[in-house]
Design goal:
- The protein has 13 helices and eight strands.
- By secondary structure, the protein is α/β, with parallel strands linked by helices.
- The strands form two sheets. The chain has a six-stranded parallel sheet with strand order 1-8-5-4-2-3, with helices on both faces.
- α1 crosses α2, α6 packs parallel to α8 and α10 runs antiparallel to α11.
- The longest helix is centred in the middle third of the chain and has 26 residues.
Length: 363
């Protein structure tokens, strides 16, 4: 059997990493960079970024239009060609990062990722999630290679609202369960081949780090301070989860998330918040041990992750709409088919309802 793992070329994390490292690292990769900055990154970090880059590399700044869609990728690609850019740098949240990765892949340029939030595991992966201009899930774009550099400034992460860190824990929470599904069913990871044992070990380690340090990391972020616990959870959300999902594989939790995106009421909630509900539903779908279900619900409650549909905008959702979610989650090509469980719209609908009922019971 041939197994395959995927890793970014270089990962840097630490206090004031942008100021101390970004310019030097970009100089290794090219002569002129496009900085695709989210609106908040442009507002809050431009001075630090420009100071780091000045004297190291030429650069052009563009502000991201908030949605990772084919139209935005085409717009930025045109700009890159016009400005003779040879390095693409994505600075911001998951969608800005995914857009930068997609542009770099389309043009075969080096890609650098500077996440300003630890809210998803997007930074390290050779994957961009493409949405429509109005925010509905459209497709996965599997990229030819992982980012050349992922640079995480923990001081920046600490200054963001703690909700983003918690959402990242929700995304990371799915990692081990989905990888374990793939291991059991011998399903392929994002390359189509099975992952190596190291991928499954990293996925499980990600889960262990969340349980051990999640509450303390959230406390630190609420105080806007960097502590060892916060550093550990940033690494779990960003690196361990990224390696675990990409090299271990995806399953039901992310497919259920994708189904939720079809309901407009969920659009105000973060990816990881919806994934956390997907994970709870997945535990019901695969008939998880009750002790594990207790552990996961207790963790979600301890850090403030959603455990009911109301907490992702679906307090009054109809069964008809939930069946729509379940049906979309089971669409051909969705990762839910990596699950060893019986998968069809009826079983997924029941799992979502059961997960919500348990969340309500506990409250």
């Amino acid at each position: 059997m041939i197994t395959t793992a995927l890793f970014p070329n270089r990962y840097i994390q630490g206090f004031n990493a942008i100021e101390n490292c970004l310019g030097q690292e970009l100089a290794r990769l090219g002569r002129k960079a496009l900085l695709l900055e989210s609106p908040s990154a442009h507002k809050n970090l431009s001075a630090i970024i420009e100071k780091s880059l000045t004297g190291n590399i030429e650069f052009t700044i563009d502000v991201f239009n908030r949605e990772c869609c084919d139209e935005e990728i085409a717009r930025i690609s045109t700009l890159v060609k016009a400005e003779h850019i040879d390095v693409i740098v994505g600075i911001g949240g998951g969608k800005a990062i995914d857009t930068a990765k997609a542009v770099a892949a389309e043009l075969n340029h080096p890609c650098v990722v500077v996440p300003t939030l630890a809210s998803t595991d997007a930074p390290c992966s050779a994957l961009s999630v493409i949405y429509t201009p109005t925010g509905e899930f459209k497709r996965y774009f599997v990229l030819p290679r992982n980012p050349d550099l992922v640079l995480v400034d923990s001081n920046v992460i600490a200054k963001a609202p703690a909700r983003f860190l918690v959402a990242g824990m929700g995304d990371a929470l799915a990692t081990w369960f989905e990888a374990e599904d793939c291991r059991q069913s011998k399903a392929g990871n994002m390359t189509g081949r099975p992952g190596p044992i190291s991928a499954f070990a990293l996925a499980e380690f990600c889960f262990d780090v969340l349980l051990k340090y999640g509450v303390q990391a959230k406390n630190a972020c609420e105080q806007n301070i960097v502590t060892p616990a916060l550093e550990h959870v940033i690494e779990a959300n960003t690196l361990l989860s990224g390696l675990g999902f990409e090299s271990g594989g995806l399953s039901a939790a992310h497919s259920i998330h994708n189904g939720f995106t079809a309901l407009e009421a969920t659009h105000d909630y973060w990816h990881g918040e919806k994934v956390s509900i997907g994970t709870l539903a997945m535990l019901m779908l695969i008939d998880s041990d009750p002790n594990m279900i207790e552990t996961v619900y207790a963790f979600c409650e301890s850090v403030g992750l959603p455990t009911t549909l109301a907490e992702i905008g679906l307090a009054n959702v109809s069964d008809e709409d939930l069946m729509k979610v379940a049906t979309l989650a089971c669409a051909e090509g969705e990762s839910i088919h990596n699950s060893p469980a019986e998968v069809n719209p009826n079983t997924v609908f029941a799992a979502i309802k059961a997960a919500n009922a348990e969340g309500l019971r506990r409250k």
